[in-house]
Amino acid sequence: MFSQKLLIRLKNAFNVTVLTGAGISADSGIPTFRGPDGLWKDQEVEKLATLEALENEPEVFWEFYNWRRQLLKDIKPNFAHFSLVDIENYFEDFTLITQNVDNLHAIAGNKNLVELHGNITRNRCTSCDHIVPMEQMAEQAIPYCDKCGAIMKPDVVLFGEPLNPKLLRQAQTASAECEVFFSIGTSSVVEPAASLPYIAKANGAYIVEINPESTPLTENADEVINIPAAKALTALVLILDRIR
Ligand code: OAD
Ligand code: ZN
User: Fold this and answer.
1) Quick one: CA dihedral 170, 175, 180, 183, positive or negative?
2) What order do you get walking across the sheet with 113-115 strand by strand?
């Protein structure tokens, strides 16, 4: 499944960076955005997950996000998430960058985690940036800020919003500095995350893609493992146990 070349790289690597997308949570039962079972076939979503929707139709916006939160309530990390916790422990310098907002990497226990698109389990005030974690949220159809009264949004990047520049810089630095870069369960089409493997490659990293389907990254990766993430990463942990 893994090439000899990759194993030699991993045996000696100090610095490893991983980028994940919705595919890593597929085995937990969360639908991906794109693809046959993706949320995105319901085109409404692209209009709903926007600041305009929050301003113009707050009831509908919040009904949508409350529904997405409800979906996540009984969802747990899968073997792919747990394997990444083990993998983190094998390397001196390990960064996990995720585009997912589902909180599953944090629940699984990864330590050096960059949540590039935010986290749906928190609310953020649209005016004063006050943060409220889910456990402390009052039962409200539309949440308003306790500090300033403005409307709250889920602490995720909406369509048309810029990413947090500090997190983006952290992700770009981790990509530039790594020796091996894994792209796992992402369709590799959404920028700026889609550029991270190219930053890594330009700086000499070995690029590994784990995805049962082809993506725009596939032909530029040094190695492609086209099986589900949980299966590939469980095997990788067994190998790291032998070689590190
Ligand atoms: P997508 O839904 O675009 O892509 C999911 C990828 O996971 C596809 O390439 C699938 O082939 C792959 N996949 C499915 N099952 C898998 C499995 N078991 N193991 C490994 N891979 C599997 O999701 P993302 O690439 O994460 O942004 O989407 C990127 C961003 O688009 C999201 O973060 C979201 C959306 O706009 C925001 O909300 C800001
Ligand atoms: Zn506020």
Assistant:
1) positive
2) 113-115, 93-98, 15-20, 180-184, 206-210, 223-225
Residue nearest to ligand 1 atom 17, measured at CA? 228
Catalytic residues: 117
215 lines ligand 1 (CB under 6 A): yes
Q: What is the pTM of this model?
A: 0.96
Q: Is 46 in the pocket of ligand 1 (CB under 6 A)?
A: no
pLDDT tens-digit map of 30-54: 888 886 666 665 667 778 899 999 9
Q: Which residues surround ligand 2, an ion (CB under 5 A)?
A: 125, 127-128, 130, 145, 147-148, 150
- Does ligand 1 have an atom closer than 6 angstroms to the CB of 19? no
Fold annotation for 35-74+124-156: SIR2/SIRT2 'Small Domain' (3.30.1600)
- What are the start and end residues of each CATH 3.30.1600.10 domain in the chain? 35-74+124-156
pLDDT digits (tens, 9 = 90+) for 89-100: 999 999 999 999
| Cα–Cα nearest to 211, from 219, 202, 203 | 219
Residues of the chain with CATH 3.40.50.1220: 4-29+75-117+162-243
CATH number of 4-29+75-117+162-243: 3.40.50.1220
Mean pLDDT of the chain: 94
